[in-house]
Amino acid sequence: xxxxxxxxxxxLSRGRFASTASQEPLYAYTDEALFARTGVRVAFSERxxxxxxxxxxxxxxxxxxxxxLAAVEANRAALASALGFAGAPxxxxxxxxxxxxxxxxxxxxxxxVRADVAQGADGLIVRTPGVAGLLCYADCTPVIxxxxxxxxxxxxxxxxxxxxxxxxxxxxxxxxDGAARPGDCNVYIGPYIHAECFEVxxxxxxxxxxxxxxxxxxxxxxxxxxxxxxxxxxxAGVAPxxxxxxxxxxxxxxxxxxxxxxxxxxxxxxxxFAALSR
Length: 278
Ligand SMILES: [Zn+2]
Description:
By secondary structure, this protein is α+β, with helices and mostly antiparallel strands. Helices cover about 25% and strands about 20% of the residues. It starts with 12 loop residues before the first strand and ends with a strand.
């Protein structure tokens, strides 16, 4: 694991990459300055540049949604290759809306980690260079945390994960034993269902308002997951300027992202990817 003396402030930009799977370009949000300075690759993928068709078109990364598994594998490999990790093993958990985090840290083989996360996990801590962590989304919030130690965490924060403080758990894991301070970590938030499209029951709305403050629930039936995450991470010591957000609503942007709500449940999954090159 490399040590990176101070991370650059997080900055996400939308990039166009060549795809090994398709003639179509592959688009992803990345932090190029972070990658150049530290070798830590973080990315949020869009839905172009893959080989899946129909509701899954085209860069579907989810293997549990009814898509052709060979297409999903080709899409995952294309994403890794586009991001500079051609041929790297990609670890993808079975996401269960829990708060369990699993580390890729060299104490176990990739196959052992894969067998473990197949039992259910909603976050990966990536500490080993050359092995990518990938989680899949269609409206839930993708969150990546990077520590100045050169380790990264990727979590799946649906409303259950947000309520269970999974992003703060990932931050704490990266900072355990004084390895890093929360204030020195970068946080990246990918595309998710924004408050205006996230109508929930009055009971759920009230529960979030109680736990995260009235500002996190703009009216009687809507909740702002991004505001909840910012508040939670802020209380844990992350400065506002250390949080970057692609600021895109999945429900409103189905030409670029998958949305479970907008597609009545039949759709692919975009991804949040983290890997270390050194
Ligand atoms: Zn929206």
